[in-house]
Design goal:
Blueprint (H helix, E strand, L loop, with lengths): L1 H18 L1 H16 L6 H11 L3 E10 L2 E9 L5 E7 L5 E3 L2 H7 L3 H4 L2
Antiparallel strand pairs: 1-2, 2-3, 3-4
Length: 115
């Protein structure tokens, strides 16, 4: 069963990479160039910021172009086992969206800040 799953996953990855390879590569190249020009923050900077501000483990990261605004979409697995979905502006690193109660609970030192 495990072998079948791995083969299915491998097949999906191969098909996905051949079907959208050129479009994906040009998007990655544009993103690399934007990072080099300091127009957007690198993933390394974003992850360091997330790790310093929140408890938990990053389990998924995507970058999305939302009408010209690049947004990092990050899923964080909290110590309680909840998935926290965060959206950060790729240019400034500002938190744009997310469940405010979950965010408050996942912040480092949340217990110290709560009376």
């Amino acid at each position: 069963m495990k072998t079948f799953f791995m083969m299915t996953l491998l097949g999906a990855l191969l098909l996905g990479s051949s079907a959208g390879g050129q479009a994906g590569e040009s998007s990655r190249q544009r993103l690399r160039e934007a990072v080099q020009r300091n127009e957007v923050l690198s993933l390394r900077v974003i992850l360091a910021r997330i790790e310093s501000e929140f408890e938990g483990r990053v389990i998924e990261v995507e970058i999305d172009d939302d009408d010209g605004q690049l947004i990092y979409e990050i899923d964080l697995l909290t110590p309680e086992g909840r998935v926290l979905e965060l959206e950060l502006d790729a240019r400034s690193g500002a938190l744009l969206n997310g469940d405010q109660r979950k965010i408050a609970r996942a912040r480092r030192n949340a217990q110290a800040q709560t009376p």
